[in-house]
Write the structure tokens for this entry.
Amino acid sequence: MQLTGAQALIKSLEMEGVEVIFGLPGGAILPVYDPLIDSSIRHVLVRHEQGAGHMAEGYALATGRPGVAMVTSGPGATNIVTPIGNAHMDSTPLVVITGQVATVAIGTDAFQECDITGITMGITKHNFLVKSAHEIPRAVAAAFHIATTGRPGPVLVDVPKDITQSMMEWWYPTTIEELDLPGYHPVVDLDDERVNEAISLIEGAERPVLYVGGGTLKSHASAQLLAFAERTGMPVVTTLMARGAFPDSHPQHLGMPGMHGMYSAVTAIQKSDLLISLGARFDDRVTGKIPAFAPHAKIIHVDIDKAEFNKVRRADVSIRSNVAAVLEAWDAATVTPQNLEVWWKEIDAWREAYPLVYDEPVADGPLRPQHVIESIARAAAPGTIVAAGVGQHQMWASQFWKFEEPGTWVNSGGAGTMGFGVPAAIGAKAGRPDRIVWCIDGDGCFQMTAQELVTARAEGIPIKVAILNNAYLGMVRQWQEMFYEERYSEVYLSPDLPDYVKWAEAMGCVGLRATTVQEMHAAIATANSINDVPVVIDFRTDSTEKVFPMVAAGASNDDIMVHPLQRESK
Amino acid sequence: MNTPEPFLGVTSHAPVRHHILSVMVENKAGVLARVAGLFARRGFNIYSLAVAPAETKARFSRITIVVDAESAPLEQIVEQLDKLVNVVAISDIAPKDALERELLLATIKTNVDSRTSLLDVVGNSGAAIVDVDAGSVTLMLAGTPAACDELERELENYTTMELHRTGRVALPRLGKAATATID
Ligand SMILES: Cc1ncc(C[n+]2csc(CCOP(=O)(O)OP(=O)(O)O)c2C)c(N)n1
Ligand SMILES: [Mg+2]
């Protein structure tokens, strides 16, 4: 069967089971948009290519399937660089198709030419510049294979216009060999010796902690984690990237570690004698000052990516594997640590002394941001998916929302990309239309990508957005207050400019505003009753609220600052 | 003042803790950029780098990289390289187990007086004359990096018009297997 390269590209995406593409057309990708009309694949037309990338990420994080975005060359391609970088940092499987100028024009500074494979070399897991129509199926199949196996990540496929316009005889790779990736071997057999070495460490441990990272979600190991944790009785912490990997309601769960982590989670790690890292990477937001991090702990490091071993902290035992396989092997060996009663007594004392707290809400406002999040969470249907922007609101969302299952937390961790929330929520809802999707956003973040609510309305993707409007780039304000003697430099945004309600309405959404506690509950109830169009609520929150606990950047985790309400007792 | 040390070029004695990585890569456009970009991005230092098609000519090339194992732990350099999809195999050759060779080409200004002594230098070092004209000589040495260093020092007594070194290539000594990391 003779096809154009463009038809082959769409057919290849169909072969990979793609159900939705987030994108926006332009000159170099034009040929591919024609066969898209006849395809079963849904296309979501974004208003800015950054939106397409974050939607694809949100889709991937909520469904576990790779997200797909398609854009044109030059500015279309550079507009999606931020999401590619974001996905790279968070190991999110993405396939990004970019149009490119015709092969003969490459290197001539042709209209809308840019070296997108060069630009994204350091922020993709791999990328391809396709050189012939015949190679399109192989490039697409290889892109999906690479994006989704081993440590997942973004893969970019750059396709020149003459290639999509030329003819090819249709074929599709059916074996891994046909992908022609002689240097790519993402999985290896489990090393039994290492597994056993780890078992002896676990069996000797009196103060173990399961340090659960995003890799646990990526390897779909939640069930194994629950079984292992319950059988061994060990305490669990889940990083910002792993929220939802272990139920927050579980008594063994201490919550999130790190810069804004729970006191008990941070301190348990510090005092542990064995830290079992499951798909985590000892990020500086978790370790604080590295030499002072968990100083007495032996380290078992489980990761599919062996380059993570000994990168930040030397491991006593490193095991290259997906998390699920290791947990299953340990369980099969019925590994048991020492009696943990004493350890739990200590942990429980920390939990009791330093739970999450915030100042008493004031009926007439301004609203407490933590109270807003708790109230949304209480009124939310089970299984609600939460996306967040980046800033204080993100930390509060991670702290105060109670996550019970994988795929319910959609957030930008490694890159901390403001503007991630709204498009990522849209992508999540596109992938999980059966779920309610809330975006907990900051006023600063909202202004970066809000235009995608037009996309949401036009495409019938009814998300709910809670803007925690503190009139500030709040996280930066917090640092200036605490570390720059309250010298506020370029962080004020104004609560009224823009008018978020009018803006929401102009984008075809329902816009609501809440200033008092009563209005807050009413707005949440109204939002929950609307399921056909997107809803935006402008919550007027207290500008002076700060995120606690906090470990200052570069400080030791031992110097964790608790909420002012808890300071006398410390 | 904290002025950075100037980069003095490829000499066998410059790298204090150098390691030689012999990296088999797919022979595809942009692969060298991927390798070089990785080193730049992660702050790994390269002392020298040589690329040529490998035994299996059509598909693979071999890149011999002399790395500064002080700029980053060797393990990190190898593992990060290994993650590049186009990298097929990496072998790490410890300097003491390595057969290292390098090529030096130099054009030297000569006159009647200096020509004879230069020919002595050439003879003693095992170099060869590859081109001659009235006022200059181009010579070549294929030898160990140390031999190339030595010749370079000898040539300081002459007027060197141009001097190029290729950077070294290496194989493990017979009976000394490289630490292979097959991707
Ligand atoms: C694209 C981008 N630019 C700048 C920053 C630095 N930054 C981190 S948090 C933050 C403030 C975010 O403000 P807002 O969205 O209002 O959230 P808040 O902290 O007030 O809850 C800024 C500027 C960033 N993370 N991302
Ligand atoms: Mg704000």
User: Anything to note?
Assistant: The first helix of chain B runs from residue 31 to 42.
